[in-house]
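SECTION: protein entry
WANTED: fold as tokens:
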Amino acid sequence: MLILARHGQTEANGRGLLLGRAESPLTELGRAQAAALGRVLTAHRLISSPLSRALDTAAAFGRPVEVDERWIELDYGDYDLRPWQAVPAEVWTRWRDEPSFTPPGGESLVELGRRVRDACESLAAEAAESDVVVVTHVSPIKAAVAWALGAGDDLGWRLRVDVASITRVATSGGRPVLHAFNEAVPVEG
């Protein structure tokens, strides 16, 4: 099974800011969420995005972590660390209507989809035999769900992925199958 875990809450997420490639540390809640993920998920292999919020979440698993750049968050470019309301309406419209649209200084959904599909396909055979956990971000998880469903790169606009949630994709039988989406993990305390 390919198990995708979104990192715990960060200071920027908690303030409602767009968070792409910028670094933002886990909050106290985010560290508790990471610990909860570490308690409920086991894996033959643990992979993480290179961003510190994902690495810090993966560290809670207490296992060796491999870094794979393909799982890094979408590059929001000039809009990184800004409130979503600061993005002009015409930019939101183009972003939602045109998967190939690239925000100033950022990355398109087509580019994101290409690298995430490549990452998923490279793990599919292994995930058919044993659990592979990837600690990543909202946009790569949405792109992986699009891959599993055979949908377009714009599917992400119709999905909500909560912090510290789990998405499961089976990869046996030649086709990916979405088994669970946006599972909540209870935080102790």
Observations:
- The longest helix spans residues 109-129.
- The longest strand covers residues 177-183.
- The chain has one domain: 2-183.
